[in-house]
From TrEMBL:
Gene3D superfamilies: 3.30.70.270, PAS domain (3.30.450.20)
CDD domains: GGDEF, PDC1_HK_sensor
Name listed for the protein in its UniProt record: diguanylate cyclase
Listed EC numbers: 2.7.7.65
PROSITE patterns cross-referenced by the UniProt entry: GGDEF (PS50887)
Transmembrane segments: 295-317
Species the sequence originates in: Aquipseudomonas campi
Taxonomy, superkingdom: Bacteria
Length: 494
């Protein structure tokens, strides 16, 4: 196979290997990533968010159920009703009563508003008169007119530096069923807010309550989703504008939505006691950052390993190829280049000589009567002579000369920068040396003479013509008695 083809095949093989390694590694990494992502998503939707929702809901319930009971008892309290029916003469007993309730039950505030006098009593005494035209007092008139026995309302508490407070507003009736006022207790939402803050900070999720109009009613002290504050409509929070419209009816359940390209998971729970919805919202960016980082790391390791494997394969292939090339271009017996090796070097030498207008001579050397030597002493003896002769021949040459075992007992030399006169001197030296040498084998000193044909390169020569001329010179040397050097000069073709 030509060298260029073998290089191309090698490159294709390496590319294929690279593609296989990369696709294999990448596939396992990506599959691993998607499996982990699905598991994380599943965990968020089915475990994390519902669990947070359950915890917050039970906290709310714990905070609300007891105050509802206390408020209910206050609304049925005979002392309270008798005091009102007796004309609210002295505020001291009702103040003491409200203080007692507040302290005993650990409420944040306790109150009674009289329908007859519109006076707002609380544990510290008379707070004010409620007025229909005062926005802060709207709640009282709403409670008065509502059907239900009580409501839960979240408002700032004027008596306590406007702290956000959950009020249980219970209607009070006299013994004939006439409405005589509203009583109840208030509790701060501090515990719930703290809990929300804790969840928001620790678990990177937004927790907030939304009323049926889509208004954010309660969230952590540091704000809710995307920095939204209590009182804000969800539709006015940049990124959440479309959220409410996406929630199907009834609104409880698990939802998914996108905010500025980020995927969100949302658990919504209806809280009947408050008539609010509890939203627990988590965007997957943070949750997936870890496994995405792992994926990138995996891919990097894959690329490095693939590169390393490829480098090792490339080095091994190169080494093997060099070995094969050496094998294919070297004669095993003498270690000299064979014809293939010679052709690679000779073509280049001829070109150089022609380009540089420098002389170049060819010597074709043949061992004399070698068949006889083989027949007399055996093939192994012949081999030994070939090896020894090649060794001696090599030691007579310069580094730049090209030597080759041309055939059985034939050798060829190309002498660079050497004209025919110098070549003749060298040929004579080789002939004399081989005539004088002996090669010991099995106790016998083997001897062999050589016949040499020489010729000098001409501008019009090809390699074949140069060798053919050297061959003719060698033929003459053989014909004229062997153990001699003959020269053939260039003759233009007719
Ligand atoms: N031992 C050995 N013999 C070889 C090898 N290659 C070729 N020969 C032998 O070399 C001999 C060459 O014989 P011929 O071509 O007849 O030439 P020759 O006997 O040298 O006679 P002239 O060339 O005319 O002097 C043959 O017998 C080949 O078998 C080899 O690698 N080892």
């Amino acid at each position: 196979m030509p060298l260029s083809h073998s290089r191309k095949a090698q490159s294709i093989l390496l590319l294929l290997l690279l593609a296989l390694l990369l696709s294999g590694f990448a596939a396992t990494s990506v599959i691993g990533y998607y499996t982990s992502r699905d598991s994380i998503r599943h965990n968020i939707v089915n475990t994390e968010l519902p669990l947070t929702s359950d915890n917050i809901y039970s906290e709310i319930q714990k905070d609300l159920v007891r105050p509802i009971l206390i408020s209910s008892m206050m609304s049925r309290d005979t002392f309270l009703r008798d005091w009102v029916l007796a004309g609210e003469q002295d505020p001291t007993p009702i103040t003491r009563y409200l203080l007692e309730v507040q302290e005993h039950y650990g409420a944040y505030t306790s109150f009674f508003i009289s329908e007859k006098t519109h006076t707002y009593y609380q544990a510290k005494g008379v707070l004010k008169q409620v007025r229909e035209d005062e926005p802060r007092d709207v709640w009282y008139f709403r409670v008065r007119d509502m059907q239900d026995a009580y409501e839960i309302n979240v408002d700032p508490d004027m008596a306590n530096r406007d702290q956000l407070t959950i009020f249980i507003n219970y209607k009070v009736f006299d013994y004939s069923g006439n409405f005589i006022g509203v009583t109840g207790v208030g509790l701060t939402v501090d515990a719930v807010v703290k809990l929300i803050d804790d969840y928001q900070q620790r678990y990177e999720r937004s927790v907030y309550f939304v009323d049926s109009d889509g208004r954010l009613m309660l969230t952590g002290a540091e704000g809710g989703p995307l920095g939204a504050k209590a009182g804000q409509l969800l539709s006015s929070v940049a990124g959440l504008e479309a959220l409410r419209a996406k929630l199907p009816q009834p609104k409880s359940g698990n939802f998914k939505y996108q905010e500025h390209g980020r995927g969100h998971f949302l658990n919504v729970r209806f809280i009947p006691e408050l008539d609010w919805y509890l939203f627990v919202d988590k965007h997957e960016e943070g949750a997936l950052a870890g496994i995405r980082h792992t994926l990138y790391l995996n891919l990097l390791i894959c690329a490095l390993i693939s590169g390393l494997v490829l480098l090792l394969v490339y080095l091994a292939m190169r080494r093997y190829q060099r070995f094969i090339t050496t094998l294919a271009t070297t004669d095993v017996l003498t270690g000299l280049p064979n014809r293939r090796g010679f052709n690679l070097l000779a073509g280049q030498a001829l070109q150089e000589a022609k380009r540089n207008q420098s002389p170049l001579s060819a010597l074709l050397i043949d061992l004399d009567l070698f068949k006889q030597l083989n027949d007399t002493h055996g093939h192994l003896a012949g081999d030994e002579v070939l090896r020894g002769f090649a060794h001696n021949l090599q030691s007579n040459l310069r580094q730049s000369d090209i030597i080759c075992r041309w055939g059985g007992e034939e050798f060829i030399l190309l002498l660079k920068d050497t004209g025919s006169s110098t070549a003749r001197l060298l040929a004579e030296k080789i002939r004399e040396q081989s005539d004088a040498s002996s090669f010991p084998f099995n106790g016998v000193n083997l001897r062999v003479s050589t016949s040499i044909g020489i010729t000098e390169l001409h501008d019009e020569d090809t390699l074949d013509r140069l060798i053919a001329r050297a061959d003719r010179a060698l033929y003459r040397a053989k014909q004229s008695g062997r153990n001699r050097v003959c020269e053939e000069t260039f003759e233009p073709q007719a």
